[in-house]
DNA sequence: GTCTATACCTTGATAGAC
DNA sequence: GTCTATCAAGGTATAGAC
């Protein structure tokens, strides 16, 4: 992690530019040339620091996955009841119309075809589901959530609602359906005691 | 719609090949050359029938969206209670690891950038949400679903769970998390009377 | 470490013969 | 309607000078 004032090395600039382009255009849609231009680096410079497009993408994907994992842990490991933490995670501010920088990679055929590129995506989404399942289990133990629920299933539903919410938002060019999907999920999860 | 035994015209073969490639590789990852080879057509032949790549993609996307809309209507307009129809829709057989041929287009920057290509995607997903909302409303009217639910929100949650389920499945190269997400949602939706 | 030059392939499309 | 050139541009990388 670089402090705000510190200027980035060429290698850092290449990784950051790649992260932006992967988010915006995916792996297939991102060319080394575009990365070099965005990073202000020459062709030879990029190939000096990285073996090629897949190698650079791997560095970028790993960093993006790491950031996503840390952000999730910060919210799900915070204070409050199980429901409160899940709500905090669902309502966390997101650049909805850009989609999820990790989840969008699953629609990229080249990422899915290369196990080393898919691995960080699988790992961070798996960790997220496990963390959410633990929170749901807490909620069940405390009697806060209704009982006949499988924590792993609810965790998958929560992550899927977010990932699918991005799809609906981008389809409509509006974040409204993302917010609707989240509110619908929260209504279904809401502790019965709190309901009218 | 062509009957099984009828051989397809070149134009039809181009559209069908494009549909497959858009599903597999997206718009950015699909080249006219790949389409021509898959369709067994020459370059000139493709440009005779279609103005170019966007025009051909539009024909393919429209047809895919139409099929998806018809399949959803067949399930949601069928027999049974509101919950039964939603369950039937969620459990409908799908080629999960391939993802949704419509939803995956929302991660394609060129599709989102071209209003004419995004329009059929927005339209069919909007129609699906509206149809689901109507079914949820029926369930509320019948007292079958729990009351403080907003039909439009639940509809968004249902569609998002499916779309996000594809993301989880492709991330893990396994349909298991898709099925988990769906089961979790069904557990949350389940009429209270039916629960232990 | 960075640069320019070079190479070979693919992309997306047009032209004109048949 | 279909075919075979042909084309300018971009994609992905290597070579070698500085």
From TrEMBL, chains A, B:
InterPro entries: Homeodomain-like_sf (IPR009057), HTH_TetR (IPR001647), Tet_transcr_reg_TetR-rel_C_sf (IPR036271), TetR_C (IPR011075). Keywords: DNA-binding, Transcription, Transcription regulation. The keyword Membrane does not apply. It comes from the Bacteria. It comes from Streptomyces viridochromogenes. One of its GO terms (molecular function) is DNA binding. Transmembrane segments: none annotated. It holds the Pfam family TetR_N. PANTHER family: HTH-TYPE TRANSCRIPTIONAL REGULATOR LMRA, TRANSCRIPTIONAL REGULATORY PROTEIN. Residues 31-50 bind DNA. Residues 8-68 form the HTH tetR-type domain. Gene3D superfamilies: Tetracycline Repressor, domain 2 (1.10.357.10). This is TetR family transcriptional regulator.
